[in-house]
Amino acid sequence: MADLIQTLTNKYMKAALPEMNVGDTVRVTVRVKEGSRERNQAFEGTIIAKKHGGINETITVRRISYNVGCEKVFPVHSPTIVSVETVRRGKVRRAKLYYLRDRVGKAAKVKERL
Question: pTM score, two decimals?
């Protein structure tokens, strides 16, 4: 039974995903359906959390637009996710960056890993 579940999850997992860690700035392109039309929409921000694993893996991406913080949780292996590309690498020492929610301006920046 466990073997059957494993083969099913391997079938639906995406093979080509970039290496992404907490603190990295990523651009997630999502397929959005509006009525009968479809388009791709990009969401760029900092990964503040990675949860679960395997087929259930999710990333929480946070960005600030018009001085309002916006967070979205993306299932990494979802068919609506067109692509995930790493824009810049972040140097952090924590697994979750929830403290960035209280920061504004330059204090909310993450140092770049070289």
Answer: 0.91
